[in-house]
Write a structure and sequence with these properties.
heterodimer, A: 831 residues, alpha+beta, five-stranded antiparallel β-sheet, 44% helix, elongated, B: 522 residues, alpha/beta, Rossmann fold, Syntaxin Binding Protein 1, Chain A, domain 2, 4 domains, five-stranded parallel β-sheet, three-stranded mixed β-sheet, 12% strand
């Protein structure tokens, strides 16, 4: 087991646990070879050379994220070949420069740099204002001027603590300001309760319990003031742990799960206490009472303290482990360990996982170790391999699992291989082990190895990867312009490549200002076609925002979803096309959308509505929808439309509608001269109908209608009874007869040329209604009725006068009709 | 007597469909906390009664009101409008809000569009300056199960909108509703469409499947094999004829709305006069299911026979003591059907008082004559007479449309004369109505020879019913006329359009026979 021994020799024992430091990248180039200057903005890379942590303000993002740095101008620095103007520098974790941009001169002093959880770079200035930069090109977000976070006259930043979603700032006058939405346009800073720091007191240090760990959902800020620690939130201030008598605290750090606090006291003690200060979990007395420069948690099991040249790892029991560094160090806490950045290397310090200990632990005879050994023998074609197998056959699955698990924790690819090979040796004998587990680990390792490559520089561990998720990793890759790798990973993991291709297309457009539209379009379409259902409209919108309207128009043509395509067409001023597409879509709501857009534009531009009428008149659906809408709310516009497009009959009907509305209006009480306007509207309608050739019937009818209204008006005046207006010609005649005004009835009859047939129906009905049977009989004798005696018979029957009816039944000429009526009388009697 | 129909016997799982609609509505109601006033448009109120017991809404602190032009009377601090996206409702909503404001009432307003938000409606709200005050949402109710074998789109005005106003919103709506159905029951592999709107709806449906595909992989075999889409315009003849089945007569005389009729309580044998009662009419009523499609006189026989047999049983129960408990149980079970029998006895009796009138017979007779399209003069004079007699204008127009359709229009002189007689008899305010009928081609001037006889012969629309009690052809429902649309459906089901292509060309609009195959990725 010689090979295993050498592995464990590199481990350090802290109490009963092993820790190991893995060198991930060394040396760090800090400048790229001249050939790869992909994304850094011009001229930056040549000036970079070497990054000295001691002379720079540095930030590093967790989850193997990038490193940002700006020279610290509060320190005296010897400039070698560097330009004297400061630059904002961005590197991958492997030290490859990603971008740089000049630091705006004359800004207030830079206090600190940090990354937000979605990897925007944040720069807090000493006056409490915030600058935000987007990766990968370090373009300022929203505006290039800083966003103020502090209220005026607060004296600037004394201390600040960032977390993924926000920052807590301690001001010079000892107030605490917090923002939890650091990514949004308006970060909305708010001041917490006054921590109550007395004039002669000093805040020694500060830590934040992040909002996700606090019940209330808002962050809790811990301040060490004098010999007490206070917890400050929005509602108040609470003094913590007075009973513990810790004394003044010089340095604090909250554990990754938000439950524990590591505090370095003035007397050189390191204490680990719950964040509610209920008890001391353990304490360790350091050699130096000088507060450490940095303090950080390594996982949940140990705390790292860094003084210049010395890094001390303290655990709950036993002697601490000491590492020596002859160059400055930056501790970057991760969920499962700490990355240690120096000027020349990137290391990862973490607890050796259990499975790794089982296999490589000195003298380990665990099944996993034996399986690993068996594979070694097998490769050497030694029969001992099978001996080993027989020893562990009963616990083979655990052994396989341990090998697979341990492989996941390795950064060294060849060791991943050996471990996985050991697992496959076991798998050959063990059919009950879930094979998916092995494949899954292989997949994960492939992805991890790909992103750990120095060219990419994301040193993720398996645990970090699982916490970050593949989707977010892909998001980070595309934000770093690593589209090809992102696409490969998406495809490899069966994830939808849409987000990658979409981002690529947008970046491509931004970066291809010099490429002609047609060429660029071809290039874009090639890739967009890879992804079914991708939103061409979104890419087109980006093209439009990048000032390439023509390209946008070409792209939006490929969008299959009308509801996405049409709004975009409108925003790029392709109204005609939008209108046509909306009509083709069959979705009338989209047609309306376009119509209102055009209408709005016209009313803004004050161009004549005639243009609008012209546009819609050529398209029947648009035209009809406009009419339907205008009928409800825009009568005048509708009338204009009808008149200007020669639809006089429709204008005529519109006038008739208005006239009926006047009739319904209670103000136009009957018999009053208010009928005037109504008649005028009907007459206007008549003239409009008359102007068209095809609407002779309507024209005549409107004319008659107007005449009827006049006649009825006169009747109401002469009879002093408001019962005529609004009734029909027939009803008017009937009313006259019922009132006994035969003369008026005859007059109406002749004026409206009522046919005799109808006259007989109307008059007999009216006479029967008032029961004037004599008059009815006289009427029947006037002359032979043109339609026979049926009206007389029916009028009598309807009035329930069978005896009267019998007078006329014999006069019915049609025998069928006669018998029918007789049956009817009998039926009615039966009922 | 539940108005919500029982859907257990449906061929598709319509219960799930209805439950989905229930859930969506309740989640809207629940999302607005506290006491609220739910204001529904009148038509929708009826539709919702097919989905849930409106009393269930009260459990969530909801008062119910019907939307109208009048100010809203409620004490609730929150108002939830649930209205179909129709332009005319927007003014009502705006007026009610403005009225509240003028009274200094501070309320929270929500507006849910059914089935979806519409730009044009929101535009009106903007113009009325109330848009800002409303929280807007959607209630995507596209299809409502009316009965175990009927789903309704509840689009009352689609014909008018399509034929006269040129507003084809309902066509999109139809496609969307079918597409939604496909999400539940799988992509329908066969589409047969006839008419401008139907073919367009089929196209839209295909397009929707491209834009927002129903996955064909994990659905298994589609539950719906064929959808047949017919424009109403293709068969305007049938709805003009007087319906003669039991259900048809109920609709003609009492008007069936949302699966029920409203009748005077006295008709149903109750004592209180003048009060209206709602009688549900759906297949949950076993007797109704049996008799709904029969001729009225057959219905009377069936109902009488049922009553008599119970009576006999009763006599037997009374006279003998030998019956076993299980036989007695059977009898009691049959007694449970008594209320159903009584209900239909009452309704049938009421219908008979109409149907026995000579005027009704005369009308059915003239309809037959018109459909046979043989004797022009008789029909023309009949219509002239009923206009001059001022019979209800609906009756007149139905016959006139029927006449014009089967005759290929009316000679100009007759056409103008009848129209003038109508305006004189019923008032000039009917001018737009006549104009619209002409525009829709329902009553028009004769321009060419009618092809009705050809269609009628080829599709065997006129059938001599030999045994009206045991009819062997659908034509019995109109006393010898088989509805054109039903004949088309029969053909579409049997052999598709291919066998009647030439004939279809005689009917308005294009036709389409579409097979949708599983599209293979790449």
């Amino acid at each position: 087991m010689s090979s295993s021994v050498s592995v464990a020799a590199e481990w350090d024992l802290l109490s009963d646990r092993f820790y190991r430091r893995i060198t991930i990248y060394s040396p760090l180039p800090w400048s790229s070879p001249a050939t790869t200057t992909a994304s850094s903005s011009g001229g930056g890379s040549s000036g970079v050379g070497r990054l000295d942590l001691s002379t720079h303000i540095v930030a590093a993002a967790p989850f193997g994220g990038p490193i940002a740095a700006v020279r610290d101008d509060s320190k005296i620095v010897q400039l070698h070949s560097e330009p004297s103007r400061r630059r904002l520098l961005l590197f991958s974790s492997s030290g490859h420069p990603l971008a740089s941009s000049p630091w705006t001169p004359h800004l207030p002093r830079l206090h600190s740099l940090a990354f937000s959880s979605s990897l925007n770079l944040l720069a807090l200035l000493s006056d409490g204002s915030l600058l935000r930069f987007r990766l990968p090109d370090l373009n300022p977000i929203t505006s290039s001027s800083p966003v103020p976070l502090l209220p005026p006259a607060s004296g600037g930043v004394a201390d600040a603590v960032f977390w993924g979603g926000g920052v807590a700032i301690l001001t010079e006058d000892n107030r605490v300001v917090v923002t939890t939405d650091i990514e949004v346009d308006d970060p909305h800073p708010r001041e917490l309760a006054d921590p109550g720091v007395a004039e002669d007191e000093q805040v020694l240090c500060m830590a934040v319990v992040e909002p996700q760990f606090v019940m209330s959902g808002s962050p809790e800020v811990l301040l060490a003031v004098g010999d007490r620690v206070v917890a400050v939130d929005e509602d108040g201030v609470q003094v913590l742990g007075e009973a513990l008598e810790i004394g003044p605290v010089q340095k604090m750090a909250v554990s990754p799960n938000g439950k524990l606090l590591a505090a370095f006291a003035h007397d050189g003690r390191l204490l680990v206490i719950p964040t509610d200060f209920s008890r001391i979990i353990f304490e360790y007395e350091c050699d130096s009472a000088l507060p450490p420069d940095q303090i950080a948690w390594c996982g949940l099991d140990s705390v790292l303290l860094y003084w210049s040249e010395v890094l001390l790892m303290v655990g709950p029991n036993g002697d601490p482990v000491q590492y020596n560094y002859d160059e400055p160090v930056m501790l970057i806490p991760e969920c499962d360990g700490v990355r240690i950045l120096t000027n020349s290397s990137m290391e990862f310090l973490h607890r050796v996982p259990d499975s790794t200990t089982l296999i490589f632990g000195i003298g380990s005879m665990s099944p996993a170790a034996l399986l690993y050994d068996a594979r070694d023998h097998y490769d050497k074609q030694s029969a001992k391999a099978y001996d080993n197998y027989q020893l562990i056959s009963s616990s083979l699955p655990e052994a396989i699992e341990a090998c697979i698990d341990a492989a996941g924790y390795e950064f060294d690819v060849s060791r991943q291989h050996t471990l996985l090979r050991a697992a496959t040796y076991g798998l050959a004998f063990c059919s009950r082990f879930p094979h998916g587990r092995f494949q899954e680990m292989c997949k994960i390792l492939r992805v991890l190895n790909a992103v750990r490559d120095p060219e990419i520089g994301m040193p993720l561990t398996v645990k970090q990867y699982k916490l970050l998720t593949a989707t977010v990793l892909i998001g980070r890759l595309i934000n770093a312009n690593q589209h090809l790798l992102a696409l490969r990973i998406s495809e490899y993991l069966n994830l939808n490549p849409e987000v990658v291709i979409m981002h690529w297309a947008c970046e491509k457009i931004t970066a291809s200002a010099a490429i002609p539209d047609v060429v660029l379009l071809e290039g874009l379409l090639d890739k967009l076609r890879l992804c079914k259902g991708i939103s061409y409209a979104a890419v087109a919108a980006h093209a439009d925002n990048s000032g390439r309207r023509k390209l946008a128009a070409m792209l939006v043509d490929h969008e299959s979803q009308s509801s996405k395509q049409i709004p975009l067409l409108l925003s790029i001023d392709e109204q005609d096309k939008a209108l046509q597409k909306s009509i083709d879509s069959g979705d009338t709501d989209l047609v309306y959308l376009v119509l209102f857009h055009i209408w709005q534009k016209i009313s803004v531009e004050k161009s004549a509505p005639l243009d609008f009428f012209g546009v819609i008149n050529a398209r029947p659906l648009a035209r009809d929808l406009f009419i339907a809408y205008a009928r409800h709310s825009k009568h005048e516009a509708l009338k204009d439309f009808f008149l200007s497009t020669g639809r006089l009959q429709d204008a005529g009907f519109l006038l008739l509608k208005e006239s009926r509305e006047l009739e319904r209006n209670p103000m136009a009480s009957k018999g009053s001269p208010l009928h005037g306007p109504q008649v005028r509207l009907v007459e206007q309608a008549h003239r409009l109908f008359a102007e068209t050739k095809e609407h002779l019937f309507e024209s005549k009818s409107a004319e008659e209608h107007a005449k009827l209204l006049r006649v009825q008006h006169q009747l109401e005046v002469s009879t002093k009874q408001a019962i005529f207006v609004g009734s029909s010609v027939s009803d008017t005649i009937k009313t006259c007869i019922v009132m006994g005004n035969e003369r008026a009835a005859v007059k109406v009859k002749s004026e409206f040329k009522v046919p005799d047939k109808r006259w007989y129906w109307l008059k007999s009905c009216a006479l029967a209604t008032v029961g004037n049977w004599d008059a009815l009989e006289t009427f029947s004798r006037e002359k032979r009725p043109p339609g026979g005696y049926k009206p007389f018979v029916e009028a009598c029957i309807d009035a329930g006068q069978k005896t009267e009816a019998l007078k006329y039944i014999p006069k019915l000429t049609d025998p069928g009709e006669r018998s029918e009526v007789l049956v009817r009388i009998r039926v009615d009697t039966a009922c | 007597m539940a108005q919500i129909p029982n859907l257990d016997n449906a061929a598709l799982n319509l219960t799930a469909l209805r439950e989905q609609s229930q859930k969506e509505l309740l989640s809207i109601i629940k999302s607005i906390r506290g006491k609220k006033c739910l204001v529904i448009d009148p038509k929708l109120a009826g539709t919702l009664s097919l989905i849930l017991q409106t009393s269930a809404l009260k459990e969530y602190g909801t008062e119910l009101r019907i939307l109208s032009a009048d100010p809203l009377q409620t004490e609730c601090p929150k108002v939830v409008y649930l209205v179909r996206s129709q332009l005319n409702f927007m003014k009502f909503v705006a007026n009610q809000i403005k009225n509240d404001e003028s009274k200094g009432l501070q309320r929270e307003y929500h507006l849910y569009f059914v089935p979806r938000r519409i730009v044009a409606c929101e535009k009106i709200l903007e113009e009325e300056k109330v848009h800002q005050k409303l929280t807007i949402g959607e209630y995507p109710l596209y299809l409502v199960p009316l009965d175990e074998d009927v789903l309704s789109l509840e689009l009352d005005y689609s014909l008018q909108e399509c034929l006269i106003e040129g507003d084809t919103s309902s066509v999109w709506h139809v496609a969307k509703a079918i597409h939604k159905l496909e999400f539940a029951f799988g992509v329908i592999p066969n589409i047969r469409a006839k008419g401008v709107a139907s073919t367009k709806a089929a196209e839209l449906l295909n397009h929707m499947q491209l834009e927002d595909p129903v996955s064909m992989d994990n659905m298994g075999i589609p539950e719906i094999d064929t959808v047949i889409l017919l424009d109403r315009e293709v068969d305007m003849v049938t709805p003009m004829c007087s319906q003669l089945t039991y259900e048809g007569l109920l609709d003609e005389m009492l008007e069936i709305h949302n699966g029920s009729v409203e009748v005077d309580a006295s008709i149903m044998g109750a004592q209180q006069d003048g009060k209206k009662v709602k009688v549900p009419l759906n297949s949950s009523d076993k007797l109704y299911k049996e008799i709904r499609d029969l001729n009225l006189h057959v219905v009377v026989q069936v109902v009488r026979q049922k009553a008599t047999s119970i009576q006999q049983d009763y006599a037997e129960v009374k006279s003998t003591n030998t019956q076993s408990v299980s036989e007695l149980k059977d009898f009691v079970k049959r007694l449970h059907s008594l209320p159903e029998i009584a209900r239909h006895v009452n309704l049938a009796q009421h219908l008979q008082s109409f149907a026995a009138k000579p005027a009704f017979h005369a009308r059915v007779e003239i309809e037959q004559i018109i459909l046979e399209a043989q004797t022009y003069e008789t029909c023309y004079e009949y219509i002239e007479e009923i206009i001059q007699k001022q019979e209800p204008i609906e009756t007149v127009l139905r016959l006139l449309v029927l006449f014009s359709l089967t005759n290929g229009g009316l000679p100009k002189k007759n056409f103008d004369y009848l129209r003038r007689e109508i305006l004189h008899s019923y008032g000039f305010e009917h001018m737009p109505l006549l104009y619209n009928l002409e525009k829709a081609g329902l009553v028009k001037r004769q321009e060419s020879r009618t092809n009705w006889p050809v269609i009628s012969r080829a599709l065997q629309l006129i059938v001599d019913i030999k045994d009206p009690e045991n009819p062997d052809d659908i034509a019995y429902i109109f006393a010898g006329y088989a509805p054109l649309s039903i004949r088309l459906v029969q053909h579409a089901v049997r052999s598709g359009w291919r066998s009647i292509e030439e004939l279809l060309k005689l009917l308005p609009g294009p036709h389409m026979d579409l097979k949708r195959v599983r599209c293979l990725d790449h």
